[in-house]
Protein backbone atom coordinates (compact mmCIF):
# COMPACT_ATOMS: atom_id res chain seq x y z
CA UNK A 1 0.00 0.00 0.00
CA UNK A 2 3.05 2.30 -0.08
CA UNK A 3 1.88 3.68 -3.43
CA UNK A 4 -1.67 4.39 -2.18
CA UNK A 5 -2.27 7.85 -0.75
CA UNK A 6 -5.49 8.83 1.05
CA UNK A 7 -5.94 12.61 0.99
CA UNK A 8 -7.58 13.37 4.32
CA UNK A 9 -7.45 17.18 4.29
CA UNK A 10 -10.49 18.53 6.19
CA UNK A 11 -11.76 20.49 3.17
CA UNK A 12 -11.60 17.40 0.99
CA UNK A 13 -13.37 15.26 3.56
CA UNK A 14 -16.07 17.88 4.16
CA UNK A 15 -16.83 18.22 0.47
CA UNK A 16 -16.77 14.45 0.00
CA UNK A 17 -19.50 14.09 2.62
CA UNK A 18 -21.74 16.40 0.60
CA UNK A 19 -20.85 14.65 -2.66
CA UNK A 20 -21.92 11.31 -1.18
CA UNK A 21 -25.27 12.65 0.04
CA UNK A 22 -28.16 11.32 -2.05
CA UNK A 23 -29.85 14.73 -1.74
CA UNK A 24 -27.03 16.53 -3.58
CA UNK A 25 -28.27 17.45 -7.08
CA UNK A 26 -26.27 17.42 -10.33
CA UNK A 27 -25.30 21.11 -10.29
CA UNK A 28 -23.89 21.03 -6.77
CA UNK A 29 -22.40 17.56 -7.38
CA UNK A 30 -20.48 18.84 -10.44
CA UNK A 31 -19.22 21.91 -8.57
CA UNK A 32 -18.03 19.84 -5.62
CA UNK A 33 -16.28 17.24 -7.78
CA UNK A 34 -14.52 20.11 -9.52
CA UNK A 35 -13.42 21.59 -6.19
CA UNK A 36 -12.25 18.30 -4.74
CA UNK A 37 -10.26 17.53 -7.88
CA UNK A 38 -8.49 20.89 -7.55
CA UNK A 39 -7.67 20.26 -3.90
CA UNK A 40 -6.45 16.73 -4.58
CA UNK A 41 -4.24 18.00 -7.40
CA UNK A 42 -2.16 19.85 -4.82
CA UNK A 43 -1.14 16.50 -3.32
CA UNK A 44 -0.81 14.65 -6.61
CA UNK A 45 1.69 17.26 -7.85
CA UNK A 46 3.59 17.58 -4.57
CA UNK A 47 6.72 15.90 -5.97
CA UNK A 48 7.09 18.17 -9.02
CA UNK A 49 10.70 19.31 -9.41
CA UNK A 50 11.61 22.95 -8.70
CA UNK A 51 14.45 25.14 -9.89
CA UNK A 52 15.96 28.28 -8.42
CA UNK A 53 15.12 31.53 -10.22
CA UNK A 54 15.71 35.22 -9.59
CA UNK A 55 12.65 37.48 -9.72
CA UNK A 56 12.58 41.25 -9.66
CA UNK A 57 9.99 42.57 -7.20
CA UNK A 58 9.03 46.26 -6.76
CA UNK A 59 11.49 46.33 -3.84
CA UNK A 60 14.44 44.46 -5.30
CA UNK A 61 15.61 41.03 -6.39
CA UNK A 62 14.23 37.85 -4.78
CA UNK A 63 15.56 34.31 -4.92
CA UNK A 64 12.56 32.10 -5.65
CA UNK A 65 11.69 28.62 -6.83
CA UNK A 66 9.55 27.66 -9.82
CA UNK A 67 8.45 24.40 -11.40
CA UNK A 68 11.28 23.30 -13.65
CA UNK A 69 9.37 23.09 -16.90
CA UNK A 70 7.90 19.63 -16.34
CA UNK A 71 4.97 18.92 -18.62
CA UNK A 72 1.67 17.57 -17.28
CA UNK A 73 -1.04 15.56 -19.01
CA UNK A 74 -4.52 14.93 -17.60
CA UNK A 75 -6.36 11.90 -18.98
CA UNK A 76 -9.98 11.35 -17.92
CA UNK A 77 -11.62 7.98 -18.38
CA UNK A 78 -14.92 8.73 -20.13
CA UNK A 79 -17.42 9.71 -19.17
CA UNK A 80 -17.31 10.39 -15.43
CA UNK A 81 -13.64 11.36 -15.48
CA UNK A 82 -14.59 14.51 -17.38
CA UNK A 83 -16.03 15.91 -14.15
CA UNK A 84 -12.55 16.07 -12.58
CA UNK A 85 -10.65 17.74 -15.41
CA UNK A 86 -11.60 21.38 -14.95
CA UNK A 87 -10.46 21.50 -11.33
CA UNK A 88 -7.01 20.24 -12.28
CA UNK A 89 -6.50 22.55 -15.24
CA UNK A 90 -7.55 25.53 -13.11
CA UNK A 91 -4.47 24.71 -11.06
CA UNK A 92 -2.25 23.68 -14.02
CA UNK A 93 -3.58 25.62 -17.03
CA UNK A 94 -0.71 24.51 -19.29
CA UNK A 95 -1.62 20.82 -18.89
CA UNK A 96 -2.73 18.98 -22.01
CA UNK A 97 -5.87 16.84 -21.79
CA UNK A 98 -6.27 13.43 -23.41
CA UNK A 99 -9.34 11.19 -23.36
CA UNK A 100 -9.87 7.45 -23.10
CA UNK A 101 -13.28 5.85 -23.69
CA UNK A 102 -13.95 2.27 -22.60
CA UNK A 103 -16.91 -0.09 -22.58
CA UNK A 104 -17.29 -3.59 -21.17
CA UNK A 105 -17.68 -6.39 -23.71
CA UNK A 106 -20.93 -8.22 -22.79
CA UNK A 107 -19.44 -11.65 -23.50
CA UNK A 108 -15.86 -11.42 -22.26
CA UNK A 109 -16.66 -8.73 -19.66
CA UNK A 110 -13.28 -7.19 -20.54
CA UNK A 111 -12.83 -3.43 -21.12
CA UNK A 112 -12.68 -2.47 -24.79
CA UNK A 113 -11.26 0.85 -26.00
CA UNK A 114 -13.66 2.78 -28.22
CA UNK A 115 -11.92 6.16 -28.14
CA UNK A 116 -8.38 7.26 -27.36
CA UNK A 117 -6.89 10.68 -28.03
CA UNK A 118 -3.67 11.48 -26.20
CA UNK A 119 -1.07 14.26 -26.35
CA UNK A 120 1.51 13.54 -29.05
CA UNK A 121 4.34 14.08 -26.56
CA UNK A 122 2.84 11.73 -23.99
CA UNK A 123 6.21 10.14 -23.22
CA UNK A 124 7.57 13.49 -22.02
CA UNK A 125 4.72 14.24 -19.61
CA UNK A 126 3.79 13.38 -16.05
CA UNK A 127 0.32 11.90 -16.52
CA UNK A 128 -2.65 12.03 -14.18
CA UNK A 129 -5.40 9.54 -15.05
CA UNK A 130 -8.69 10.59 -13.46
CA UNK A 131 -11.95 8.77 -12.75
CA UNK A 132 -14.23 9.42 -9.76
CA UNK A 133 -14.61 5.74 -8.81
CA UNK A 134 -12.07 2.91 -8.62
CA UNK A 135 -14.45 -0.04 -8.25
CA UNK A 136 -13.39 -3.34 -9.85
CA UNK A 137 -10.35 -1.60 -11.32
CA UNK A 138 -11.01 -2.99 -14.81
CA UNK A 139 -11.31 0.37 -16.56
CA UNK A 140 -8.32 1.90 -14.77
CA UNK A 141 -6.12 -1.13 -15.48
CA UNK A 142 -7.08 -1.07 -19.17
CA UNK A 143 -6.69 2.70 -19.52
CA UNK A 144 -3.23 2.66 -17.97
CA UNK A 145 -2.25 -0.25 -20.22
CA UNK A 146 -3.38 1.66 -23.31
CA UNK A 147 -1.42 4.73 -22.19
CA UNK A 148 1.73 2.67 -21.65
CA UNK A 149 1.33 1.04 -25.07
CA UNK A 150 1.29 4.52 -26.60
CA UNK A 151 4.47 5.59 -24.79
CA UNK A 152 3.28 6.98 -21.46
CA UNK A 153 5.63 6.27 -18.57
CA UNK A 154 5.13 8.50 -15.54
CA UNK A 155 1.52 7.79 -14.54
CA UNK A 156 -0.55 8.52 -11.45
CA UNK A 157 -4.18 7.56 -10.85
CA UNK A 158 -6.47 10.02 -9.07
CA UNK A 159 -9.93 8.95 -7.87
CA UNK A 160 -12.47 10.22 -5.36
CA UNK A 161 -13.40 6.85 -3.87
CA UNK A 162 -11.64 3.49 -4.14
CA UNK A 163 -12.70 -0.04 -3.24
CA UNK A 164 -10.08 -2.45 -1.89
CA UNK A 165 -10.74 -4.72 -4.87
CA UNK A 166 -9.95 -1.94 -7.34
CA UNK A 167 -6.77 -0.94 -5.55
CA UNK A 168 -5.60 -4.56 -5.57
CA UNK A 169 -6.32 -4.90 -9.30
CA UNK A 170 -4.38 -1.75 -10.25
CA UNK A 171 -1.45 -2.66 -8.01
CA UNK A 172 -1.27 -6.17 -9.46
CA UNK A 173 -1.31 -4.93 -13.06
CA UNK A 174 0.63 -1.68 -12.65
CA UNK A 175 2.76 -1.73 -9.48
CA UNK A 176 4.60 1.39 -10.64
CA UNK A 177 1.46 3.58 -10.59
CA UNK A 178 0.69 5.65 -7.51
CA UNK A 179 -2.99 5.86 -6.51
CA UNK A 180 -4.43 8.99 -4.91
CA UNK A 181 -7.91 8.83 -3.38
CA UNK A 182 -10.07 10.78 -0.94
CA UNK A 183 -11.51 7.59 0.59
CA UNK A 184 -11.13 3.82 0.64
CA UNK A 185 -14.57 2.31 1.16
CA UNK A 186 -15.65 -1.08 2.49
CA UNK A 187 -16.26 -3.29 -0.54
CA UNK A 188 -18.06 -3.87 -3.83
CA UNK A 189 -21.62 -5.16 -3.95
CA UNK A 190 -22.83 -7.92 -6.29
CA UNK A 191 -23.34 -5.36 -9.09
CA UNK A 192 -19.80 -3.97 -8.86
CA UNK A 193 -20.78 -0.73 -7.11
CA UNK A 194 -18.70 0.64 -4.25
CA UNK A 195 -20.38 0.42 -0.82
CA UNK A 196 -21.18 2.91 0.64
CA UNK A 197 -19.75 4.87 -2.31
CA UNK A 198 -21.87 7.57 -3.94
CA UNK A 199 -23.82 5.68 -6.59
CA UNK A 200 -23.10 6.07 -10.31
CA UNK A 201 -20.75 9.05 -10.62
CA UNK A 202 -21.54 9.63 -14.31
CA UNK A 203 -25.29 9.69 -13.72
CA UNK A 204 -24.93 12.06 -10.79
CA UNK A 205 -22.63 14.39 -12.73
CA UNK A 206 -24.81 14.60 -15.81
CA UNK A 207 -28.30 14.03 -14.39
CA UNK A 208 -28.89 10.75 -16.22
CA UNK A 209 -29.97 7.27 -15.09
Outline of this structure?
The chain has 209 residues and is of the alpha/beta class.
Structure, described:
- The structure is a single chain.
- The chain is of the alpha/beta class and 209 residues long.
- It is 31% helix and 33% strand.
- The chain has helices spanning 10-20, 26-44, 85-91, 138-149, 164-173, 201-206, and strands spanning 4-6, 50-57, 60-67, 71-78, 96-97, 99-104, 111-117, 125-130, 133-134, 154-162, 178-184, 187-188, 194-195.
- The strands form three sheets. Strands 1, 4, 5, 6, 7, 8, 9, 10 and 11 form a nine-stranded mixed sheet that branches.
- α1 packs antiparallel against α2 (26-44) and α2 crosses α3 (85-91).
- It starts with a strand and ends with a helix.
- The mean pLDDT is 93.
Salient structural properties:
two-stranded antiparallel sheet, 209 residues, nine-stranded mixed β-sheet, 13 strands, alpha/beta
> Average pLDDT value?
93
Number of helices: 6
Low-confidence stretches: none
In angstroms, what is the radius of gyration?
A: 18 Å
User: Number of DSSP strands?
Assistant: 13
Share of helix, binned: 25-40%
Overall form: globular
Give the amount of beta strand, in percent: 25-35%
Topology (elements, then pairings):
Blueprint: E1 4-6, H1 10-20, H2 26-44, E2 50-57, E3 60-67, E4 71-78, H3 85-91, E5 96-97, E6 99-104, E7 111-117, E8 125-130, E9 133-134, H4 138-149, E10 154-162, H5 164-173, E11 178-184, E12 187-188, E13 194-195, H6 201-206
Parallel strand pairs: 1-11, 4-5, 4-6, 4-8, 8-10, 9-10, 10-11
Antiparallel strand pairs: 2-3, 6-7, 12-13
